Amino acid sequence: PIFxxxxxxxxxxxxxxxxxxxxxxxxxxxxxxxxxADLVQGLxxxxxxxxxxxFEYLAAIDEWSAAMxxxxxxxxxxxxxxxxxxxxxxxxxxxxxxLDALGDGTDALVSIYSQIGMIATATGNRDLxxxxxxxxxxxxxxxxxxxxxxxxLSQLGRHAEALDAAERMDMETPRSWTILGNVxxxxxxxxxxxxxxxxxxxxxxxxxFQT
Length: 211
Hints:
Blueprint: H1 2-13, H2 17-29, H3 37-48, H4 54-68, H5 74-82, H6 89-101, H7 108-122, H8 126-137, H9 146-155, H10 159-168, H11 174-186, E1 196-199, E2 202-205
Antiparallel strand pairs: 1-2
């Protein structure tokens, strides 16, 4: 029985939801008593659902990330992003209050989207993360996420696009300069001995680099 439970969870983790559903149904037909059957059934139901509010998916991701690992939750992040139109003005007002309490002036919707984007990056879905950062960049105050566009393009091996994005990104933070250096390094425009380390908007050349 433990094998069947592991198989179902593994299929869900790989995004093979239909196969996981069939495996669960086959276990039921064969009267196999799955360990933690209710938990497994709940997971199957969660992964099959495509119409939940993004906050529900984010809550589920938070609940299962430690047990299942980030990559296993990739499809749930996609669901959350695809359902972003369900985020209401009331949802945004609630987030606004939380941000105000922290002294954070970030636009509420941008804050919500950026959370989904960071989780997408954590799951290894950089294509989705890139899509989210580009969307954020078009919203009020979203320019702070333009460095993420350059970083994800670089990680995806799209170096020419990454260099272009890096030249046009917001350079107001030290992180932006670090990303610029990394993008140039990965694009082959500098080597480790000439790698530029950026700090507070100022760059200095490292004469030697130890690995």
